[in-house]
Structure formats: structure tokens, C-alpha cells
Amino acid sequence: MQILSIRPEGGAGNTVARFDVQLDGMRLYNIALKRGQAGYRVFAPSAFGIAVVTFTPETASALISAVLGEITANDRNAA
Questions:
Q1: What is the pTM of this model?
Q2: Helix-strand-coil split of the chain, %, nearest 5
Q3: Which site in 8, 33, 69, 71 is 20 to 30 Å from 77, CA atoms measured?
Q4: How high does pLDDT run on average in the chain?
């Protein structure tokens, strides 16, 4: 898994960032990292009102960890 890019969102909503990721043999774009009452979750874009991609709990956890790690590293580098 490789995070290709991260775009933090600073609005009043619960979306923390959007990101692009490369997984085994595929690239997924515009994944949303959202903060909710139960913690962080990841959501892929939808088409015609239906999720295009869903993630197993293990993959979702790995994505969340990777993105939060990149955001934290970027914050440290900016300081």
C-alpha cells in the first residue's frame, strides 16, 4: 500500500482529508477519511448513489493508520 497524495480538509464537516492510494494492482482516488463518534472511517466515492468500493475492516484500519501517519509526519516537517 502506498499513499499517493493527501489533501487535508479544514472545513466544519467531519472529513479530515481526501487521499489517493495504490493497492495491489490498482489505484483508488478521492478516498475520504472522516472522523465520527466511533473513531475514523474511510469512504470511497460513490456512483449513482452506490459505493464503488468498500473495504474490509483490516484494509480500512491499514488505510487509516497510513493516512494519519502521513498527516502527522507532514505536520512535523512543516513545524
A1: 0.85
A2: 30, 45, 25
A3: 33
A4: 90
Contact at 8 Å (CB) between 58 and 38?
Answer: no
DSSP-assigned letter for residue 5: E
DSSP 8-state class, residue 24: T
Adjacent-strand bridge partners of 22: 2, 27
| Grid cell 478521492 in the structure block, residue | 30
- With cell 473495504, the residue in question is 55
Query: 2-78 is classed in which CATH architecture?
Result: 2-Layer Sandwich (3.30)
pLDDT reported for residue 32: 96
Distances (CA, A) of 10 to 59, 63, 78: 25, 20, 16
* Number of other CB atoms surrounding residue 60 within 10 Å: 15
pLDDT tens digits, 58-76: 999 999 999 998 887 766 5
